[in-house]
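Quick one: structure tokens for this chain, please?
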Amino acid sequence: MVVCGDDGLAHRLAAELRGVYGEQVTLVVPPSGRRVRQPVVGRARAASAALLDRVSAAVNRAGAGGAEPAATEQVVEAAEITEAVLTEVGADRAAALALVYDDDETNIRAALTARRINPSLRLVLRLYNRRLGQHIEELLDQTAAVASGAGPGAGADTSTTVLSDADTAAPALAATALVGTSKVVQTEGLVLRAVERQPPRPGEVADPGLCTLALLSATSNDPAGADGSESSGEHGPQLLPDEMAVASATGRGTVVLEQVAYSGPSLPSGRGGVPPFASLFSRRLRWSLAGLVGCVLALAVAFMFVTDEHPLYATYVTLLDLFGINDPAYHESTGRQVLQLLSGLVGLLLLPVLLAAVLEALGTFRSASTLRKPPRGLGGHVVLLGLGKIGTRVLTRLRELHIPVVCVESDPEARGMATARRLRVPVVLGDVTQEGVLEAAKIHRAHALLALTSADTTNLEASLYARSVRPDLRVVLRLYDDDFATAVYRTLRAAHPFALTRSRSVSHLAAPAFAGAMMGRQILGAIPVERRVLLFAEVEVAGHPQLEGRTVAEAFRGGAWRVLALNTSPLGRRGDDEPVGEERVPASGLVWDLPPTYVLGAGDRVVLAATRRGLAELLGRRRRERAGA
């Protein structure tokens, strides 16, 4: 694997490939004078990788046959990515190349050069322009297909994947604000999370969620190993256990898969961007109109009693007098003349009221496309600070989950203002460091605070102030510097032990998605379980003898892989009339409750969880590598 970049994402990605997937990585970075400081996690993992190399070499010298060499990393300095540099780092024989520079043009130029050197190379590009990224992805895939002599769309493993760190980090940030964890996987518009649960008490029935992913170590439930990092019991975690193992396990926690959902209150919104009728006019104006209508009705009733006319005729004549288009009552009775004068007076009062109603309605319609203010009585919402590139993506994701959001932004021309207007999301304009801004966003009744501005100090100041208002408020900070983020997290956790605090960097959240794309398009994500990792992949059943023609129960292999769901979208199903159990497959989406007797066909596409070794065996990658060697 070759990773080229000039910021923290490159180091994070290299560490992810080495630590999670066990890959051999070549990291291409700018010269020392132009290089950014490597994140603390990257430095720690680099030291761990060096130690693993020494241990693995000692084991191999001792004659441990069949053991795989530990992952290593080679660092190459290059001012720019040229054909000579790509040849030097072995792009002509590499499995995948990631171009994660901060400049779109640099990534595109290097991708075109790499595709010419190695048409079968798997490319992963970091581009901010999503529309341009779609065209580049199609162009490079078509180039690979033509160079290999295959038809369009052939060779899914030789693919180009264009990602944005903002898009990939948004689901994890949204899930962290909602359920307090970033161990999430996104597929088919769903956000799934892995939840660690304590052993059930005697007589208590544990909720299995969508499925049980793992049995935790016996010591992982102790306070010393609650985070999984210090788990070193006799029995390590058991990944993808069968039902018998889950039923017989006693005193061991479990990791289950759940769907992230929100059942709290939602913000009221008009249909199609049109405000409701009650919001067109102010309360005072509505009372004025009601008073005038009452006067007209009273005059009509009085006219009916004075002239003994029909009620409809009395109302009609009263309206004529009101609008001043009736003849003067010269030869009428005194009562009729008084009523006509009163009707004319009410008509004079009606004119300014009608004018005010027209102006208020026009103003309401004009402001329908502008920013909304937080409604009164709002509670249980998420306060989002910053509507930049990251904040806009997170806002869209939160609204897809129907979570009420109030945004705070200091720049009226920020990138996400148009999105906030389109989604009818309340926005408070102002500097979050100024007094009263967070109060205007109803921070005292909020469920969580997402501080996603581009300034670390602003995020920290806003979080500390929110903590002073609500000590138990869930807070998620976006902090760029890893050392700073670690110090902030530990300090806030010590100061507020009963409140949930999370500090996240975008590169930390985006690296798993980029690493998964380098392993192939079928990789959806990875979830760590103590010191091991589970991969989630979407695989076509055709061509895999371990899946094709087998039932769901027969396709399961404990500790290796497990079929979780059937993709019934138009691109992932074998027919609209194929039944699943006793029911027919829905038109789109994922079927999670697959019966064990369902037979996987060649046209099916399934979502499965697998270990690294299991997925490598299922996809046949290890056999191809040995054959190539």
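The chain has 19 helices and 24 strands.
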